[in-house]
Design goal:
One of its GO terms (biological process) is carbohydrate metabolic process. This is Glycoside hydrolase family 57 N-terminal domain-containing protein. This protein has 381 residues and is α/β, with parallel strands linked by helices. 46% of the residues lie in helices and 12% in strands. It has two domains: 2-266, 7-stranded beta/alpha barrel, CATH 3.20.110; 280-380. The protein contains 15 helices and ten strands. The strands form two sheets. Strands 1, 2, 3, 8 and 9 form a five-stranded parallel sheet that branches. It has a five-stranded mixed sheet with strand order 4-5-7-6-10, covered by helices on one side. Strand 4, helix 5 (128-136) and strand 5 form a beta-alpha-beta unit. The longest helix is centred in the N-terminal third of the chain and has 21 residues, at 17-37. The mean pLDDT is 94.
C-alpha cells in the first residue's frame, strides 16, 4: 500500500500576529522540522500565499527556508490554490483565476519557478466551475472530498472528471478523521486500522489541516512523524499516484467540501458550513460580498488582468477585495459548532471598507454597504 498524505497550512489575512506566531511555533515549524529529520517521509502540502507573506512579515523566514529545503530534496510537493482562501464556488470565475494567479506569483517569489501540478480549492470546495478553471490554469489534478464522488471510491485507480478530463483524487474521509482526532496516534493503532490493506496494491489518501498537529492537538506532530516513518507503508506524493495506478475511471463529481455532512448532501446544500440558506447572517454576508465584487469589477478604474493592469486609483480597492473575501468570516457565522462575532465583524468591516474605497462607486452602493454591515453586526448580537 502507498500512503499519500496531504496537509493544508493557512491563516487568514486578518489573523493577529500572536496567533500566527503561536500556531507557527506549535505546529508548522515542528511539522517541517520533523520532515527534515525523517527524510523517508513524503507529503503533499498546500501553503496559501497569504501565510507565506505573514511568515515573512512576522519574522518566520526560517520556516519558509525549511519549505525550500524540503522542495529541493523532493520530499514534498506544493499545490496551487487561491491566495486569500475564498470559497471558490461562491465567487465569479474571473475572481477564481485572479486568486490562483496571485497565489502562483507568491509561490514564485519565495520558491522560484516551482510549478505545482495539483490544485487545492480552499475548504476542498469543489464544483464544476472550479474544475474547469483549474484545468484552464494548467493544473493536472485536484484534490476533492470523498463525498464528491457519486458512488464508492476505489483506491486502486485514479479518476478523471467526465467534462474537463482533469484528474481527481478523493480524500479518504474516515481515516483522515481518525488521524486528526487522535484515534490513530501510534504506528500500531494506524496499522491495526489499515489492516489487510497494507499488503494490497492500492493507495490511502488522507488530507488534514496542518494546525491539527501540535496546535489543536499537542504532541500529534510527533505522532505524525511516527506514522509517516513506518516501514510497512511507503509514503508518496499525490502527483506520483498516476504512474503507480494507471487504471482510469471517468466520473461526474458532486459539489462538496471537506466539512460536508451527509444530511447537508441530502438537502442539496453542499456548502452549508459557509452558505446555509437558513442562516440569516450568512445571507447578509454574501450580499455584502457580492456587492463588493460588483463594485470593484464595475469601476472604470479597474481593468481585466493582473495588478499591473490596474489604474492607481482603483488599485487599493482591488487589493482590499482580494483579502476581504476569505472564507473564515462565513465559517465563524455558522455556529456549527464554533462562533466568533469578532471574526464576523472584521470580515464585514473589510468588505464594507472595500466598497467605500472604490473611487466611483455610487452613493447608494456605499450606503447599502453600510446598511449591510450594520445588519450583520446587529443580527450577530
Amino acid at each position: 500500500m502507498y500512503w499519500a498524505n496531504f496537509l493544508h497550512f493557512y491563516q487568514p489575512p486578518t489573523q493577529k500576529r500572536v496567533w500566527v506566531d503561536r500556531i507557527t511555533e506549535e505546529s508548522y515549524r515542528r511539522v517541517l522540522k520533523g520532515l527534515l529529520e525523517h527524510p523517508e517521509a513524503r507529503v503533499t502540502l498546500n501553503i496559501n500565499g497569504v501565510l507565506l507573506d505573514l511568515w515573512e512579515e512576522f519574522g518566520h523566514k526560517d520556516v519558509i527556508e525549511m519549505v525550500g529545503q524540503l522542495l529541493d530534496r523532493k520530499q514534498i510537493e506544493l499545490t496551487g490554490s487561491a491566495k486569500f482562501h475564498p470559497l471558490l464556488p461562491k465567487i465569479p470565475a474571473e475572481e477564481i483565476k485572479r486568486q490562483i494567479e496571485l497565489n502562483a506569483a507568491t509561490l514564485k517569489k519565495y520558491f522560484g519557478d516551482y510549478q505545482p501540478k495539483g490544485f487545492f480549492p480552499p475548504e476542498m470546495a469543489y464544483d464544476a466551475v472550479v474544475a474547469k478553471v483549474a484545468k484552464e490554469m494548467g493544473f493536472s489534478w485536484i484534490i476533492a472530498e470523498e463525498l464528491s464522488h457519486p458512488g464508492k471510491v476505489a483506491y486502486d485507480r485514479i479518476y478523471q472528471d467526465q467534462e474537463t478530463g482533469i484528474t481527481l483524487f478523493f480524500r479518504e474521509r474516515e481515516t483522515s478523521y481518525r488521524i486528526l482526532s487522535g484515534q490513530l496516534g501510534t504506528g500500531k493503532l494506524f496499522l491495526d486500522a489499515i489492516g489487510g490493506r497494507v499488503s494490497k496494491n492500492e493507495y490511502l489518501l488522507t488530507a488534514m489541516d496542518g494546525e491539527t498537529f501540535g496546535h489543536h492537538r499537542p504532541g500529534m506532530d510527533r505522532a505524525l512523524m511516527e506514522l509517516l516513518s513506518l516501514e510497512a507503508v511507503t509514503t508518496v506524493l499525490i502527483s506520483e499516484i498516476p504512474e503507480k495506478f494507471p487504471q482510469v475511471e471517468k466520473v461526474t463529481p458532486r459539489p462538496a467540501t471537506w466539512a460536508l455532512m451527509e444530511k447537508d448532501l441530502e438537502k442539496k446544500i453542499p456548502f452549508a458550513r459557509w452558505d446555509d440558506p437558513d442562516n440569516e447572517i450568512q445571507k447578509l454576508q454574501w450580499q455584502l460580498t457580492d456587492l463588493a465584487i460588483e463594485a470593484v469589477r464595475n469601476s472604470k478604474f479597474s481593468q481585466p488582468g493582473g495588478l499591473e493592469d490596474l489604474n492607481p486609483p482603483g488599485l487599493k480597492a482591488r487589493q482590499m477585495l482580494d483579502r476581504a473575501i476569505h472564507s473564515d468570516q462565513y465559517w465563524w457565522a455558522s455556529a456549527r459548532p464554533w462562533w466568533s462575532l469578532e471574526m464576523i465583524e472584521r470580515g464585514a468591516f473589510e468588505l464594507k471598507e472595500t466598497i467605500l474605497t472604490v473611487p466611483d462607486a455610487a452613493a447608494e452602493t456605499k450606503q447599502k454597504a453600510k446598511d449591510l454591515y450594520f445588519a450583520i453586526i446587529t443580527t450577530g448580537f
